[in-house]
Amino acid sequence: MIRAQRELLMLPVVSFFTILLSLAAVGVPAYLAVLVAGGSDTLMWVAGAVLTYVAVAVALFFQTAMVVAAHDHMDGRDPTLGSSLSKAVSLLPQILGWSLVVTFVKLVLRWLRDRGTLGDLLANLADAAFTFATYITVPVLVAERLGPIAALKRSANLLRKTWGENIIGRVGISAVTFLLMLGAIAVGVAGGFVAATVSVGLGIGVVAVAVLGVVCVVVLSTALNAVYQTALYRYAVGASVEGFGEVDLVLAFRRKATMY
């Protein structure tokens, strides 16, 4: 799908810059207001919560646009950047509601991590459980237009029906992303060595290539995850999944024997 709709790789790029601009537009006035008011811890938490919500909402908006494109492609339509963004705008109520839930969970996890080693351990476990339970929540929001709590329950229910020991595709994407990122970092380190020992100009050029490589890896990984989440949702509800073999998804979500 990504090969067929390469212009949609722009969505993660636009998302990144939109997040930066949104955080600057909201964060600077918020923290100036906190400083003027005396810089209390409570106000700092409020400002942090607002910034977290803004970042989550913007990221989810563009993730939704990518999932919309994946749904359209798997339904046989030809999505474009404009059509995907337009449909994501129509889902703003669902996006903003789900962003509120995600922000609340992030703030609770942050509070737990501030409680010491035990709190950090509990936060990591809770984070892993929440991430797993909500893995296909955005495809649920797109396809079924549910509210945030209903979408969370629906996502968790679908996963309970179809999950095996692993979501193999997600682990695979993460592993490949990690290896590619290591490669890009290694090129960057080599560029630093070249700059220090051979030529500054050449070294800067190599480092620039490494930075570009990191950006490409992040963009591709984001797009792949959105497409794979959509495929898993469609498989779970019995819809067609163009571009995926049946065996790929059966292995990814091995059904429990008790379901038959």
What features would you highlight for this structure?
260 residues, mainly alpha, 2 domains
Radius of gyration: 21 Å
Strand residue content = under 5%
Topology as a string of helices (H) and strands (E)? HHHHHHHHHH
The percent of residues in helical segments reads: over 70%
Number of helices: 10
* Low-pLDDT windows of residues: 255-260
Q: On the 0-100 scale, what is the average pLDDT?
A: 82
Q: Describe the biggest sheet?
A: none
Distance between the termini: 32 Å
Q: In the residues, how many domains can be counted?
A: 2
Describe what you observe in this structure.
The protein is an all-alpha fold. The protein has 2 domains: 6-162, no CATH class; 168-259. Helix content is 80%, strand content 0%. It contains 10 helices and no strands. Helix 2 (41-74) crosses helix 9.
Secondary-structure blueprint:
Blueprint: H1 10-36, H2 41-74, H3 81-90, H4 92-113, H5 117-133, H6 137-144, H7 148-162, H8 168-197, H9 200-237, H10 246-252
Helix pairs in contact: 1-2, 1-9, 2-3, 2-4, 2-6, 2-9, 4-5, 6-7, 8-9
Summarize the structure.
It is built from 10 helices and no strands. With 260 residues, the chain is mostly helical.
